[in-house]
């Protein structure tokens, strides 16, 4: 410590100790009655021992004088490292520790004392001239009991020390009382045991030896005990002992035993480490209880609490828990799921003529037929009587749920076999989907039940979604599928073309073909209304062939390239390149004027297969563009590997180009990167002159958007192109 020597104790310190008298005339205990709490007279063999740690000799001397005059036994250390040694050897009752010292400061020394076995409960008072909040905070974080600021108030020093010692004594007695109570509770169990680390022998009480079927002699090697433990639990038992020995904390464990000539038993163990005088583990003291009957009873209760006794299916309690688990998974990014409430009227029809046993067989037959539609990740339960419920996970669309419900209904169109006779059963299914129909278990079950009640209003077997809106959407989806199929047959589809402008020459060099559906009675439909349905039903293959043929035929006599979107189902179909080339040859359209646009999602699903297909297309002279770049799984590593000719920057980056510096930086860097890789860049969503000028400044190759031209039907496109330069710039 580099501060100046502390001042001499002021006059009031004389009030701390009375005038000197002969030891046989005035016991020190009379001068400090508080010391009797420590169980002995001050200055005697059991007087409180205080360790003073300070690098200033004068300070240590003055503190020693005050404390010894009060009746305490004092030892000293001049730095933190020496204090650790003294604390280990002398085990003081209290430590007065300075903060700023050489070798090891007081904070570090306090932490080290707290980590030791013998010092973790020793009171530590920090002595420091730093009386700010930070110093106090650091002291307590280091494990200090209290702090005393310098210059020391000598009149209060003894009071602070006495209070800390009294508090430490109370805490120690409380710990001992708690330990005694815990051990008494354990001893009251059926058996007790003790593992001696010195001999390696396990000593058991008579009750425990009888429980395990052991000989009357006490003390057996641990390996003999392990031989009695079920193999799967031996590792756990070894870990239990190892953790007790090294971490020295009370632990509990339940193991299964299979003693010779005795039935397997469940044994509950609890243990605690007893340390020797040096703080080293000496023995483990523990108790054991045979909990076999309780475990069997609990297993039976748990089964009947969660499963239906008749069918073996989960009951309402377990089903609610599984629905709750599905909600948690969905909230963390999983897919939606559906709850189906099902009732079967087979028992209602027959209950007047069948016995209870026959009724049970009907319910079991219903459960078995329902279970035939159960996937491994789904759950079927019996709610009550003839009511069941099904949890259908990973729902991608309402149509998938409708399909599952319809299959359930169709299954019960055939008679139900019950023993030697058969009966017809009507099935009513109510459907609720998370999260649109409810975000908690009760709401989903309630809404599924309401939907089932509406299904019962129909004659025969049926299913119904909870909301009329959702039900109408499913019906509309089914109607749209049929209408799309008919539309392909009747030629209701048409193509619109959006020009692409070369930003360096100002000339139109290509178009993108965009599919439209002129649906009777509903007008012109945009792709977002039907593309997903085409993809999911497989109609996209026929529609894609039509788009390719129609677009190339329309552009055949124009000096323009044509871009056609390719869906994942089309792209992943075998021999894509060969099929495209066959179409081009039939209509005499050059392959190098065709550009197929794909999304990065196609590549993510099967990167190696996609790269092979892209190389095949490139060898045939067909250009490939990566569409909507920046909105999906954009990866520079993947971009480097893909044999691409064109990259299309998504319109959402381009539309905010002028107002958003981050988007401008992304677009600019993407253009530079693509040019370094030899890839042409098309910017979608060019809406105004400002964006176009920035793209030209960035060196973008091609622009496309409403600011240049909206998608047009072929006649309108011809009229528009009559007023603009078209085709490559003449040499």
TrEMBL record:
**What's in the keyword line of the UniProt record?**
Phosphoprotein
Against Pfam families, the record matches this protein to: EAL, GGDEF, Response_reg
Q: Where is this region: Disordered?
A: 1-41
What stretch or stretches form a coiled coil here? none
Q: Mark out the compositionally biased spans (Pro residues).
A: 1-12
- Biased composition range(s): Low complexity: 13-23, 32-41
Highest taxon of the lineage: Bacteria
**Residue span, GGDEF domain:** 335-468
Ranges for domain Response regulatory come to 49-165
Residue ranges of the PAC domain?
251-303
Residues that the record marks as modified (4-aspartylphosphate) are 98
Residue span, EAL domain: 477-725
| Protein name stated in the entry | Two-component system response regulator
């Amino acid at each position: 410590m580099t501060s100046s020597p502390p001042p001499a104790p002021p006059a009031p310190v004389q009030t701390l100790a009375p005038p000197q008298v002969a030891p046989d005339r005035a016991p020190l205990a009379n001068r400090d009655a508080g010391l009797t709490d420590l169980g002995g007279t001050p200055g005697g063999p059991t007087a409180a021992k205080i360790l003073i740690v300070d690098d200033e000799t004068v300070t240590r001397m003055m503190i020693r004088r005050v404390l010894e005059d009060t009746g305490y036994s004092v030892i000293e250390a001049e730095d933190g490292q020496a204090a650790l040694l003294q604390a280990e050897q002398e085990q003081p009752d209290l430590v007065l520790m300075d903060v700023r010292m050489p070798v090891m400061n007081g904070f570090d020394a306090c932490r080290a004392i707290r980590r030791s076995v013998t010092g973790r409960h020793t009171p530590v008072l920090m002595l420091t001239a730093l009386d700010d909040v930070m110093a106090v905070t650091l002291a307590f974080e280091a494990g200090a009991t209290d702090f005393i600021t310098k210059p020391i108030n000598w009149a209060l020093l003894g009071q602070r020390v006495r209070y800390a010692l009294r508090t430490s004594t109370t805490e120690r007695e409380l710990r001992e009382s708690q330990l005694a109570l815990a051990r008494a509770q354990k001893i009251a169990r059926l058996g007790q045991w003790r593992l001696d680390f010195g001999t390696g022998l396990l000593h058991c009480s008579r009750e425990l030896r009888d429980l395990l079927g052991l000989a009357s002699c006490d003390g057996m090697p641990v390996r003999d005990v392990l031989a009695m433990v079920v193999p799967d639990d031996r590792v756990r038992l070894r870990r239990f002992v190892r953790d007790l020995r090294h971490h020295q904390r009370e632990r509990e464990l339940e193991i299964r035993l299979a003693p010779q000539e005795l039935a397997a038993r469940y044994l509950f163990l609890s243990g605690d480490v007893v340390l020797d005088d040096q703080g080293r583990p000496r023995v483990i003291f523990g108790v054991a209880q045979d909990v076999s009957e309780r475990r069997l009873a609990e297993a039976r209760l748990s089964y009947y609490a969660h499963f239906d006794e008749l069918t073996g299916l989960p009951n309402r309690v377990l089903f609610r828990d599984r629905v709750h688990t599905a909600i948690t998974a969905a909230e963390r990014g999983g897919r939606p799921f559906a709850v189906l409430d099902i009732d079967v009227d087979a028992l209602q029809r027959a209950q007047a003529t069948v016995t209870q046993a026959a009724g049970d067989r009907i319910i079991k037959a219903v459960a078995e037929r329902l279970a035939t539609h159960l996937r491994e990740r789904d759950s079927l339960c019996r709610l009550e009587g003839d009511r069941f419920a099904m949890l259908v996970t990973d729902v991608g669309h309402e149509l998938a749920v409708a399909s599952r419900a319809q299959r359930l209904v169709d299954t019960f169109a055939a008679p139900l076999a019950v023993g030697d006779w058969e009966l017809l059963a009507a099935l009513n299914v109510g459907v609720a989907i998370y999260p649109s129909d409810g975000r908690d278990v009760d709401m989903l079950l309630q809404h599924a039940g309401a939907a089932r009640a509406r299904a019962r209003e129909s004659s025969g077997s049926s299913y119904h979604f909870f909301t009329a809106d959702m039900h109408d959407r499913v019906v509309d989806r089914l109607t749209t599928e049929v209408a799309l199929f008919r539309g392909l047959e009747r030629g209701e589809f048409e193509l619109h073309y959006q020009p692409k402008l070369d930003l360096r020459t100002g000339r139109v060099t290509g178009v993108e073909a965009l599919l439209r559906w002129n649906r009777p009675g509903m007008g012109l439909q945009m792709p977002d209304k039907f593309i997903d349905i085409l993809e999911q039903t497989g109609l996209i293959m026929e529609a894609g062939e039509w788009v390719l043929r129609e677009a190339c035929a329309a552009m055949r006599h124009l000096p323009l390239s044509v871009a056609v979107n390719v869906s994942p189902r089309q792209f992943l179909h075998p021999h894509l390149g060969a099929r495209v080339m066959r179409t081009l040859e039939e209509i005499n359209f050059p392959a190098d004027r065709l550009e197929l646009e794909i999304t990065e999602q196609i590549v993510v699903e099967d990167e190696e297969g996609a790269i092979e297909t892209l190389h095949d297309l490139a060898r045939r002279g067909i250009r490939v563009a990566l569409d909507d770049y920046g909105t999906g799984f954009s990866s520079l590593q993947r971009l480097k590997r893909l044999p691409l000719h064109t990259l299309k920057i998504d319109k959402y980056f381009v539309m905010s180009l002028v107002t958003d510096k981050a988007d401008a930086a992304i677009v600019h860097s993407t253009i530079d990167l693509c040019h370094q890789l030899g890839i042409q860049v098309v910017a979608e969503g060019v809406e105004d002159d400002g964006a176009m000028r920035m793209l030209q400044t960035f060196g973008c190759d091609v622009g496309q958007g409403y600011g240049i031209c909206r998608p047009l039907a072929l006649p309108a496109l011809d009229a528009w192109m009559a007023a603009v330069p078209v085709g490559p710039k003449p040499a």
